[in-house]
Amino acid sequence: MPMFYRFALVCSLILAAFSPMSPARAEISPAQKSEFEALIGAYLKEHPEVVRDAMAELERRQKEDEDTARQKAISGLSDQIFNSSMQAVVGNPNGKVTLVEFFDYNCGYCRRTLEDITRLSKEDNDLRIVLKDFPVLGPGSVEAAQIAIALRNQFKGDKYWDFHQKLLSTRGQVGKTQALSVAKDLGADLAKVNADSANPVVRASIEEVMKIADGLNLTGTPSFVLGDEVIVGAVGYDELKAKISSMHKCGKTACG
Length: 256
Known about the structure:
This protein is α+β, with helices and mostly antiparallel strands. The protein has two domains: 3-75, no CATH class; 78-250, Glutaredoxin, CATH 3.40.30. 29% of the residues are buried. Helices cover 61% and strands 10% of the residues. It has eleven helices and five strands; from the N terminus they run ααααββαβαααααββα. α6 (139-151) crosses α10 (200-215).
C-alpha cells in the first residue's frame, strides 16, 4: 500500500477513535493522544509533499463544486444571460454559438482581450457575441456603461461594435466624458444619448448584469459564459478558440 494511503488510513482510524460517537473514545488516554499527534507530526515532516497533495486535491474539489454550482446558475439564468433585451449583440446575431463577455471599460485585461474577441469575430462567421457591461471598477466605469447602454438606441451591430472597440482601446481612465467623445466621433446625437442615459432602462440593465454576475459568483473582468461553462479571466485567444470550436463540433466546450 502506498505511503500516502497508509497515512490516510491511520488518520481515518485516529479520527474515528476521537469521534464523539466512537465507543473507544473514552479509552483514549492523554498519552495515547500525544503519541498519535507525534506520529502524524513525524510523518508530515518526513513527507511534506502529503500536505501539498492534500491542498491540490482540496482545490480540485472546490473548483469542481464551484463549476457545478455555476452550471446550475447558468441553467436558471439562461434567458437573461443569452437573450436579454437589455444587452448588446455583435458578430452574427443569428450565430449558432454564443460567447457572452462581462467587461468593464476600465479593465486592462479586457483591453488585452479585445484583440482576441475581434480576431474570433472576424474568423468565425457563425459566432454571436453578447456584451454585458459589468462596471465594477469605480464611478467612471458606471458612467461609461450608462453612456454605452444609452447609445444602443442609436448604434446597432457593427456600428456599436466600432464604439465598443474604440472606447475600450482608450488610454487612461474612462468615464462619461470619454464615452461621449467616442460617441460624438462616430456621429451619435449627444443630446439624445444624454437623455437616454437617464432612462430607468439603463439602470435596470446594469442591475440585471450585477444580478447575473452574483448568481455566477463572478468577481472580476473579463469573464465569459460559453455553453454551460464560466471562463474567468483573460485566458487568451487559443483557449477561447478551442472552446468555441468544440461548441461548434459537439455543443460543449470540451468534446469527449
